[in-house]
Known about the structure:
Blueprint: H1 4-13, E1 20-21, H2 23-30, H3 35-51, E2 55-59, E3 62-63, E4 75-78
Antiparallel strand pairs: 1-4, 2-3, 2-4
Helix pairs in contact: 1-2, 2-3
Amino acid sequence: MASVEDAILEAVAAVPAGKSVSPDQVAKAIDLERWRRVLPQVKAAAVGLARAGAIVILRHNKPVDPAEPIKGVYRLRAL
Length: 79
C-alpha cells in the first residue's frame, strides 16, 4: 500500500493544473471501504506536505497557512 503522502501527491498530479482534490477523494483511493477512518491521516499528511512546500491547502479557494489549525472543508492542490 502506498503511503498517504504518495496518495495525496498522485491525486493532485492527476487533475489539471490549478484544480484541486478533496481529502475524501484521497481517502477513498487509499481505502474505499473505510475511507472515513483514513481522513485524519490524510489531513496530517497534507499539513506535512504543505509545510514542505509540495502542495497547497485551500479553504474557500484560498491558500491557508499549514501552521494554523485547519477547520472545516478544505481541498488540496499541487503547486
